[in-house]
Amino acid sequence: MPKIVDHDQYRKELLQGCLALFAERGYGSITMRQIAKGLSVSTGTLYHYFPSKESIFMQLVQELCEQDISNFFAQASEEGSLEERLQAVMDFVLQNIQKYHQQLLLWVDFFQQTREGSEAEILFLRQIWDRTRDTLKDYLQVQDPAILDFIMVFVDGLMIQFIYNRGFQRMEWFEQQCQLTIQMILRHEQHCLETQT
Amino acid sequence: MPKIVDHDQYRKELLQGCLALFAERGYGSITMRQIAKGLSVSTGTLYHYFPSKESIFMQLVQELCEQDISNFFAQASEEGSLEERLQAVMDFVLQNIQKYHQQLLLWVDFFQQTREGSEAEILFLRQIWDRTRDTLKDYLQVQDPAILDFIMVFVDGLMIQFIYNRGFQRMEWFEQQCQLTIQMILRHEQHCLETQT
Amino acid sequence: MPKIVDHDQYRKELLQGCLALFAERGYGSITMRQIAKGLSVSTGTLYHYFPSKESIFMQLVQELCEQDISNFFAQASEEGSLEERLQAVMDFVLQNIQKYHQQLLLWVDFFQQTREGSEAEILFLRQIWDRTRDTLKDYLQVQDPAILDFIMVFVDGLMIQFIYNRGFQRMEWFEQQCQLTIQMILRHEQHCLETQT
Amino acid sequence: MPKIVDHDQYRKELLQGCLALFAERGYGSITMRQIAKGLSVSTGTLYHYFPSKESIFMQLVQELCEQDISNFFAQASEEGSLEERLQAVMDFVLQNIQKYHQQLLLWVDFFQQTREGSEAEILFLRQIWDRTRDTLKDYLQVQDPAILDFIMVFVDGLMIQFIYNRGFQRMEWFEQQCQLTIQMILRHEQHCLETQT
DNA sequence: TATGAATGAGTATTCATTCAT
DNA sequence: CATGAATGAATACTCATTCAT
Q1: DSSP conformational letter for A2
Q2: Which of A83, C14, D130, D132 has the most neighbouring CB atoms within 10 Å?
């Protein structure tokens, strides 16, 4: 009988601990020793659960994404008009803006690091991105893919603002931008309906 | 390798050479040896002009901002309707997407680097953002500041897409997003005019 | 002006120092730190002169082989009968038996290490081997390639004996084996001449 | 994985399994985890039966010698002329070249390992060599001990070639070398008989 | 001024070994 | 007996920086 440890469960716990560490120092800057120390395990143990630093990152991205999606559905009502659902999405983004801003930093850092990297990782991340988009599509029930992409572009742009301004930007500004965008989308949808008939 | 007597002038020339190198490999990944090689000087010479790697980076960011951002909208024609001018802005962005994407990368690197840094740098970048917005405002003659911010958010979001997709995304996708956004803005402006009266 | 060092000359000096270190501990067992320490330089300096541990080994093998050849010709007379020249070869081998035994260990160790290794290294060593054989061929003026291979097989076998017996085998035994082999080869050559006519 | 109660018996079975593993990857390269995996046991179990990696290796060498070497010439027919019997020996060597090449590798590994080791192991291997020579002597009925040693030197040299060339050398080359050597020995014996009378 | 040789702590990763279960 | 999680020192190699020339 081995030491009683739920390998998979413990791996996820370590992953959770990694989020804060990566966010704090960035993918490129943090070392495996620092991660191990931050998690209060040895480097050997770290490698027992993850084959490489890159793997930690990959698994972390996946885990975060899955959490995001389930967190969102735990909070958002599946009912309501398009406007209400757009509002729910934006509310969720604004509530988690701190967290998403960290995630964006992580992603960009990673892309810097693996600039000439193998296609496999890029495709993997691509899939996660696609999954998020599909979830968004199902929730909003918007048919036009361009609108979905537009929303995600907008949210990413918002994060960049958050980075640039490091919290100096007032929260109201973000809310205002969201309202503006929601109105624009609604008007666009309205217009499409009208021109169709 | 020019034999320039003016220390400061030569320093700036070296800095110019660094731009492409940093953009190509990222601050974290490029080594001093690679920079030196890329500039066709020895590491010793590099250290003669810059006290450290971080110093090169900081000076580069500053230099870039000083010369580059102010020219953002210098090219576009001052004539035409709002739609034409929005189109001119988007065309300009798409034409220079490669370049702005590099700058965004540099800035994110900068923020990673100065994560716990002094407020001075943040304010400095803030000023650049404001200047860019003012230029945009003058050009588009749009009164609503939220719209201007929205455009900049959108452009930043577009850059993030460019990073994520590393050229996998077709150019048409970017053009489509721009058209969508232009139409949304025009419709918004139309709506504002109608409700005002 | 750089620090005055003849890069290539110093590299060869380091290489000389490596011979003893490799021979003492084996290619697989010795570490780069130990090599650096043994050469009284830092690991950084070691990597300044050699790109990798494998490269040190490769260059060492080449250097040793070149030295062997030039040492041999410095000693051996180009004149004389086949018997005298065979004798010169065997004398040279026996005189350097200690050294060759170390080299053989090095080679075998290396082959163990790079068992699944890239073809490049194997081809490189192959070339060195071929060069030795060509030199032997020119010296002995023996036309039959099988005889040359036979001599090299015999010498390698002798080294294995030296390893197995670690000097317990008396020197006379080695001399006796050499004489036996020389006589066999001469008799073979004689026979070939007779049957040809 | 048999469930054997006899500790010692099971230990020997594990040892048998180790032979292929060591031969395949070499003492230095194989890890305890790989050995454990290859034997379908856990590392803990491995350490239950053997105190260390080195211990496995040493016990393996001993076990191999005990069972393998004595069977070296058991297969060959006891009838026939000297030529036929030499041919039988060479055929046997060539048939088992793969296996003996592995054993030679193991022994060289052993010598690398025990470079500064106790004399006991060396004497032990010496005995094996002597026993092999005695078996060869009985089989070939050659009186001259130098010839017997010569044959063994030749066979060892052949193995070294096998290692160096890693299968690149065609099998015909080995056969050719064997034929050459047989002819040389026969001619030598002939000569001895002639000069004796 | 300019060079590039030298440094050594630092990097991701491996591995023989231990030990709680 | 058996397991495999845990350890941490060790590995090959890197890199910002220094400094003699």
Answers
A1: -
A2: C14
Percent of chain D with pLDDT over 70: 86
First to last CA, chain B: 65
Chains near B with 3+ CB pairs less than 8 A apart are A
The CA-based angle B57-B109-A52, given to 5 degrees, is 120
Tokens linked to D56: 């496995």
Cα–Cα distance for residue pair D15/D65, rounded to 1 Å: 13
Domain-embedded: residue A42:
no
Residues 87-126/D with CB < 7 A to strand F: none
- Establish if A32 belongs to a structural domain: no
Neighbours of B47 (CB within 10 A): 15
Q: What is the pLDDT of residue D147?
A: 94
Nearest chain C Cα to D119, which residue?
A: C166
Q: Which residue has the higher pLDDT, D3 or A44?
A: A44
Residue B181 belongs to domain spanning: 57-196
Please state whether strand F lies within 7 Å of residue C37 at its CB atom.
no
Nearest to B73 by CA among B90, B55, B49: B90
B and D touching (3 or more beta-carbon pairs closer than 8 Å): no
Of D26, D75, D84, D82, nearest in space to D53 by CA: D26
For residue B70, being part of any structural domain is answered with: yes
Give the up-direction half-sphere exposure of residue A84: CA atoms within 13 A in the CB hemisphere. 6
Residues in chain D: 197
Q: Tokens at residue B99, please?
A: 């370049």
In a domain, A145, yes or no: yes
Task: Give the tokens for residue B40.
Answer: 């066709």
What is the pTM (predicted TM-score) of this model? 0.83
**Alpha-carbon distances, residue C47 vs C35, C50, C110, D27 (angstroms):** 11, 5, 20, 27
The span from the CA of A168 to the CA of D56, in Å, is: 65
Specify the number of domains making up chain B: 1
